[in-house]
């Protein structure tokens, strides 16, 4: 809670050891500095990237760290020079905030910003260790401090649980379809991996006007969920060659757009070769640093043509796109209610990771 204008005492999920359950601990936060904001978290999505970070997939130098990067909350304090938000604003937190000055921002490509803005590291454990928040924000907690430009204002009436998911998984999926791949009306799409991000790609493809949307997964339950979000067909990859099945569903040609939302090299290769001539394959799933495509047949890839792309955060601009997605939710075009499988407490966050691994949830959301 806030303590006048001084140090904040907060409570959150802190990962101290690789692969071990995160502990729920109190920690302190110094007041926000210039250009920064203290945010009281209302809700946070439990994303697979947090699980990967906790398991050391991205290395171990950042331990101990504060989990969470899909958050919605209320601005509780602001530092000097903050003008884009005021105390009391309801905001979605973005883990990327373009700086406006790097080589990409200056050439009109802020979605590729090479110097994304973050707050100074102002959070410390009870034993004096400086905490690294996941992706620069940290949202499995009662309070966090971020750069003010990581705060995107939304209407007070919008539900925090659903809005938190726009901050990463939903934006990543919808943006991959609309911006990275540029799905066109009347086209065909295959989405490999029908979890929270994959189903957001399905929704994005539907918004773009795709008329054939094929969900691919190993889990029958996830395939049923994909139908609810707009998949016109589903393929269970455990029952045969998914590439052959996708081609059967597309007149023998393959799809115009494929998406890999798993982070698995074998699945990536399937996504590449399920395309029609000159189709676009977009990699959305985060593979580990040691993953590689060791046997990609380059001649076959060349003959197929098209494009292989990587989607970072759906190539979004949070200040532009978060309000758009929030409006689509209000208009019934984005079914975020269905993405929220379960609302949980902070103490249940570790079990939420296990439920994710078992395929029982699209998104658990921590509510404060």
Automatic annotation (TrEMBL):
Domain of life: Bacteria
GO molecular-function terms, A-Z: S-(hydroxymethyl)glutathione dehydrogenase [NAD(P)+] activity; zinc ion binding
Enzyme Commission numbers on file: 1.2.1.66
Keyword set, alphabetical order: Metal-binding, NAD, Oxidoreductase, Zinc
Keyword Secreted in annotation: no
UniProt domain Enoyl reductase (ER): residue ranges: 22-366
InterPro entries recorded: ADH-like_C, ADH-like_N, ADH_Zn_CS, ER, GroES-like_sf, NAD(P)-bd_dom_sf
Keyword flag Nucleotide-binding: no
GO cellular component terms listed in the entry, alphabetical order: cytosol
Cofactor(s) it depends on: Zn(2+)
UniProt record, GO biological process: formaldehyde catabolic process
Family, as annotated: Belongs to the zinc-containing alcohol dehydrogenase family.
PANTHER family, A to Z: ALCOHOL DEHYDROGENASE, ALCOHOL DEHYDROGENASE CLASS-3
Name listed for the protein in its UniProt record: Formaldehyde dehydrogenase MscR, NAD/mycothiol-dependent / S-nitrosomycothiol reductase MscR
């Amino acid at each position: 809670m806030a303590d006048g204008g001084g140090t904040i005492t907060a409570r959150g999920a802190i990962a101290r050891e690789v692969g071990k359950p995160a502990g729920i601990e109190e920690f302190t936060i110094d007041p926000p500095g210039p250009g920064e904001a203290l945010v009281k978290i209302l809700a946070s999505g439990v994303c697979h990237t947090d699980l990967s970070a906790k398991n050391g997939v991205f290395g171990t130098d950042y331990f101990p760290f504060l989990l969470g990067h899909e958050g919605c909350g209320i601005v509780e304090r602001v530092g000097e020079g903050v003008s884009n938000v005021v105390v009391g604003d309801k905001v979605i937190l973005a883990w990327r905030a373009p700086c406006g000055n790097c080589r990409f921002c200056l050439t009109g490509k802020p979605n590729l910003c090479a110097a994304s803005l973050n707050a100074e590291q102002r959070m410390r454990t009870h034993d004096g260790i400086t905490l690294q928040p996941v992706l620069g924000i940290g949202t499995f907690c009662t309070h966090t401090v971020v750069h003010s430009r990581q705060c995107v204002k939304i209407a007070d009436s919008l539900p925090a649980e659903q809005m938190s998911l726009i901050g990463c998984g939903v934006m990543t999926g919808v943006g991959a379809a609309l911006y990275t791949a540029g799905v066109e009306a009347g086209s065909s799409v295959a989405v490999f991996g029908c979890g929270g991000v994959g189903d957001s790609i399905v929704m994005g493809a539907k918004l773009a006007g795709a008329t054939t949307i094929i969900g691919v997964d190993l889990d029958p339950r996830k395939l049923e969920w994909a139908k609810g979000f707009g998949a016109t067909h589903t393929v269970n990859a455990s029952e045969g060659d998914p590439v052959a099945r996708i081609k059967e569903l597309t007149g023998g040609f393959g799809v115009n757009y494929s998406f890999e939302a798993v982070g698995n090299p074998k699945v990536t290769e399937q996504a590449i070769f399920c395309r029609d001539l000159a189709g676009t394959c977009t990699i959305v799933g985060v593979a580990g640093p040691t993953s590689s495509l060791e046997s990609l047949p380059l001649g076959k890839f060349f003959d197929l043509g098209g494009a292989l792309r990587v989607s970072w955060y759906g190539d979004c601009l949070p200040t532009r796109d978060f309000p758009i997605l929030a409006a689509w939710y209000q208009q019934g075009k984005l079914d975020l209610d269905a993405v929220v499988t379960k609302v949980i407490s902070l103490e249940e966050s570790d079990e939420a990771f296990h439920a994710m691994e078992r395929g029982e949830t699209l998104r658990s959301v921590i509510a404060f």
